[in-house]
Amino acid sequence: MTAHPTTATTDLPAQAAEVLRGLALDEDLKWRVPEDPVLGPVAARVARRFVAGESLTDAVERARRVIAGGHRASVEFMGESCRDEQRAAAETYVFLEAARLLPEGCSVSLDLSHVGLAIDSELALANASRIARATAGSGREMMISAEGSDRTDAVLAVHRALCEEFDHVGVTVQARLHRTAADLPGLLELPGRIRLVKGAFLEPRDIALPREDPALADTYTAYAERLADSGHLCSFATHDWDLIDHIDRHLGGRGHANAPWEFETLLGLGPDRLDAMAERGHPTREYVVFGTEWWLYVCNRLAEDPQRVLQALVDAAS
Ligand SMILES: Cc1cc2nc3c(=O)[nH]c(=O)nc-3n(C[C@H](O)[C@H](O)[C@H](O)COP(=O)(O)OP(=O)(O)OC[C@H]3O[C@@H](n4cnc5c(N)ncnc54)[C@H](O)[C@@H]3O)c2cc1C
């Protein structure tokens, strides 16, 4: 077989990203690596950059710092694909505690599969309803994350059911997924913030645009403009400067405290972006994650930008 070294080198970042996304979804590794006596502490040093800590107390403290820095905060207790009903109930309790203890101006984010969707939609709805009641009671938004495309129907169905009772429950849509074009009009009819992300999951081409496809930027900006023009509560959740600049220009280069939109980045990944947008008066939010199940989250963050893999090597040795 003929070797093609140039092609192989060019494709290396994409191949590495695919491997990392595959590792992220390995449910065996997500337990074994953090608990491994040798690998665990090394991986935890890498995670520290992106994760507030393992406890709710760590998240509360970090959210306070975000708010003191002039941004809103959102807190997620990490975890997904919980397949045990009692554990799903115990995890739900942590979100209820978060709704009670987080500072004002801080929303609660979650994966529905963390609270039962991987077991049964009814269970997810029951647990998510408890969290919706608790967050409504403490005056904070609740945001539902987007998961793999095999779960999108179920996620949107639970969100729609929650919207029959509550008006503060938002949902995340992925610009990469072809189906988002059809999902968005229905979501614009419902209350609750719509968070727009590129989409982090490994998906086939007939379901989603590849991340490296140049059409993704145009797709993202088209959805962002539609959200901005709708006046609906929304979040532009990206670290991509080109997209941020485009949306800022579309919004006239200035925001105000009561604007229905916000710019949102993940903990530690875009403080410069948030500060720049806050200076122009746009509402901004940092997404703070905490918990022991950081494996999937950290692998996905490393997969997204080759520079972060190099940074991870430095962090691992520090
Ligand atoms: C608040 C928030 C919530 C989220 N929630 C979800 C969710 O519920 N579900 C979900 O699936 N995803 C979620 N995500 C993740 C999201 O889908 C993206 O995977 C993630 O944000 C990375 O995409 P990006 O838009 O930030 O830009 P990126 O594509 O990461 O680009 C950012 C910058 O990274 C650099 N970069 C990227 N790739 C390369 C490369 N190959 N070579 C060199 N430089 C590169 C470039 O400088 C670029 O400007 C969320 C993200 C945020 C911010």
Nutshell version of this structure?
With 318 residues, the chain is an alpha/beta fold. It has helices at residues 5-24, 29-35, 39-47, 56-68, 85-101, 121-137, 152-163, 180-188, 215-230, 241-250, 271-279, 295-304, 306-317; strands spanning 72-77, 106-110, 142-144, 169-174, 194-197, 234-237, 261-266, 284-290.
Features:
8-stranded parallel β-barrel; 51% helix; 13 helices; 2 domains; TIM Barrel; 318 residues; alpha/beta; binds flavin-adenine dinucleotide; single chain; 8 strands
Please render the helix and strand layout as text.
Layout: H1 5-24, H2 29-35, H3 39-47, H4 56-68, E1 72-77, H5 85-101, E2 106-110, H6 121-137, E3 142-144, H7 152-163, E4 169-174, H8 180-188, E5 194-197, H9 215-230, E6 234-237, H10 241-250, E7 261-266, H11 271-279, E8 284-290, H12 295-304, H13 306-317
Parallel strand pairs: 1-2, 1-8, 2-3, 3-4, 4-5, 5-6, 6-7, 7-8
Helix pairs in contact: 1-12, 2-3, 3-13, 5-6, 6-7, 9-10, 12-13
The structure holds flavin-adenine dinucleotide.
Residues 13, 145-146, 172, 174, 197-201, 237-241, 264-266, 287, 304-306 line the site of flavin-adenine dinucleotide.
